[in-house]
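Re: zinc ion structure - here you go.
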Amino acid sequence: MSAVGESVPMTAVEDGLAHEVGAEDLSAGSEVGRYRALCGAVIGPAALTVPAGAPCRSCAVEVAPPGPEAAGVDARRSRRAAASWLRALRARTARRDAGATLSGVADDVAA
Ligand SMILES: [Zn+2]
């Protein structure tokens, strides 16, 4: 019985990874609060307020066997996105600090 193609990512409290849970296991698991992921792990779902974890590699293979190249590009892209986000955050913080000491609220009005 295969649920490939009808799975949803679910972050596990056990390992923090986002496992793929098939549609059938999803309905079965909802009765007991534990879900069997495609990789075979039985997981408890993390709270929805918790950011999604890194995708479980074993589950990812079950869903769609990735080429090693595609996976590498994805990892690089998300790392770069995180880095630029951090840079922007730091720049914003630095500007705010400078504005507070030099020109007060004028900086905020101009922005
Ligand atoms: Zn998994």
